[in-house]
Amino acid sequence: MAKHAKDNSELDDEVIELEFDEDSVAYYIVDENDKEIGVCVIENGEEVEYMYDEESELADVQEKLNSVKEDLQAFSGDALVSVKELKQTTDELQKAYDEIMNSFKIFGKKK
Questions:
Q1: Most buried among 32, 44, 76, 111, by the most CB within 10 A?
Q2: What pTM did the predictor assign?
Q3: By three-state DSSP, how is residue 33 classified?
Q4: Which parts of 1-111 are beta strand (E)?
Q5: Alpha-carbon separation of residue 1 from 8, 38, 48, 105 (angstroms)
Q6: Cβ partners under 8 Å of residue 5, min gap 6
Q7: Alpha carbons 35 and 29: distance in angstroms, whole number
């Protein structure tokens, strides 16, 4: 987040990691599209605005997308294994069914 004073006279582009309680939030800063772009926090009785670092947000989104991609790849691999196992089981059941039906045919032909 980039920190700057309430009066906006001085903008500090330093990126800091900020941890705060929800109780200390005075308000959230939004742009004209109602997108949250910062937060105002009460520090030592004064309101201090922090603007979100867009690059950090993009990195966070990219990290989440990569995590989802990895999860999907793992799920796809597991699903493929399950489908192969299901196919093998189906083939075994079909073979057993065919053998049983052939047994009935043999018994049916005798008079």
A1: 76
A2: 0.38
A3: coil
A4: 2-4, 11-15, 25-30, 36-43, 46-51
A5: 15, 8, 12, 79
A6: 48, 49
A7: 8
